[in-house]
Design goal:
8% helix; mainly beta; 4-stranded antiparallel beta sheet; 176 residues
Length: 176
């Protein structure tokens, strides 16, 4: 298990009606520009959607590596976890999580940002989730999205004491 998902399957989601699989593919992060594919496949394996997305890879600095390593050591309850136990990629993965909206929309949770105090979800633009208690594990999303449409987002989070909260955000697509 790696906090950034390195070496695991790429992020994927299943459409709420079970009709399609959404996944991330062909991540290319070398150089100053990178790209990745977003794919929507039918259960028969036909490509419904294929989109290339360009992005600027965010490099993982030494301080961020140390912060993630320390949080991971605390998570696995082994403060002696050697530094070599976690191989870090050069850059953060461009997408941490995919969510299939109930109305056919596709939501992507973008790169981890340890300094910004927010999660950035993109769907034909982006939605910033703020004002939600931070998760004790820095690589986890601040809010788990349960239902997403072009109009609203429903999700859950927990505070520092583990108390669960339900959140509903209206999506205002008129915002610049």
């Amino acid at each position: 298990m790696h906090p950034l998902g390195a070496g695991l399957l790429p992020p994927f989601a299943v459409a709420p009606d079970g009709s399609a699989l959404l996944l991330l593919g062909d991540v290319r992060a070398s150089g100053p520009r990178g790209s990745f594919e977003v794919l929507k496949l039918s259960l028969e394996g036909d490509t419904i959607l294929r989109r290339d997305v360009e992005y600027v890879p965010r490099r993982i600095g030494p301080a961020e590596r140390e912060q993630i390593h320390q949080a991971f050591a605390e998570y696995v309850e082994d403060p002696r976890l050697p530094r070599s136990a976690l191989d870090f990629p050069e850059a953060y993965p461009p997408v941490r999580q995919l969510v299939a909206g109930n109305d056919g929309s596709l939501w992507l949770l973008r790169e981890l940002d340890l300094t910004g105090g927010e999660d950035r979800w993109e769907v034909e633009g982006f939605v910033r989730i703020t004002g939600v208690p931070s998760c004790p594990l820095p690589w986890e999303p601040r809010m788990t999205i349960l239902r997403a449409t072009w109009e609203e987002i429903w999700g859950t989070s927990r505070d520092d004491l583990g108390v669960p909260y339900i959140h509903r955000f209206r999506v205002d697509r008129r915002c610049p």
